[in-house]
Q: What sequence folds into this?
């Protein structure tokens, strides 16, 4: 998105926090979804229309006129990797338009080469172009999703994603109550 960069994302996130607003409160004020604010703050400016980004900047009192038109390439997460298994609880599904994507939870490579949640081998680069993975659901260079779609998704991706998010929340709650020593 011309005029907005990852630095713009950082400025907006910091301004929101300084004003004591949650992502949901900001989303309500500017007329978008909380998940879009989350994606934007993680560097995916394409999650929001330019008009909405300008509303956010105005609401937060951030002047973005000096922003350059540099491309939005995700910043590599040095020493981190992600699980490529769409069934893994580390990968949270969300829907943009009618497209199902997964937000992979970065895991430190120092912890081993396998996912702490499911044991799958971790990846640290895009499977299509080899670019180091950054924070986000898709490669910043080629747009390929880091986590492939599961075979059981049919047509109602929003219902599938909502059910999967409930399963992940239940799993995390179970971990929190039964095994407080496990790293989450």
A:
């Amino acid at each position: 998105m011309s005029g907005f960069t990852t630095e713009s994302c950082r400025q907006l996130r910091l301004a929101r926090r300084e004003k004591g607003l949650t992502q949901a409160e900001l989303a309500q004020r500017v007329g978008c979804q909380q998940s879009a604010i989350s994606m934007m703050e993680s560097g995916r400016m394409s999650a929001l229309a330019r008009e909405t980004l300008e509303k956010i900047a105005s609401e937060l009192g951030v002047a973005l006129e000096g922003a350059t038109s540099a491309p939005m390439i995700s910043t590599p997460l040095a020493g981190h990797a992600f699980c490529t298994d769409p069934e893994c609880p580390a990968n949270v599904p969300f829907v943009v338009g009618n497209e199902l994507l997964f937000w992979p939870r970065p895991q430190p490579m120092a912890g081993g080469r396998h996912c702490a949640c499911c044991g799958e081998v971790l990846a640290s680069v895009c499977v299509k172009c080899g670019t180091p993975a950054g924070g986000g659901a898709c490669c910043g260079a080629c747009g390929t999703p880091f986590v492939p779609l599961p075979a059981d998704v049919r047509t109602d991706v929003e219902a599938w994603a909502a059910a999967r998010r409930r399963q992940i929340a239940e799993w995390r709650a179970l971990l929190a109550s039964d095994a407080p020593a496990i790293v989450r």
In short: The mean pLDDT is 77.
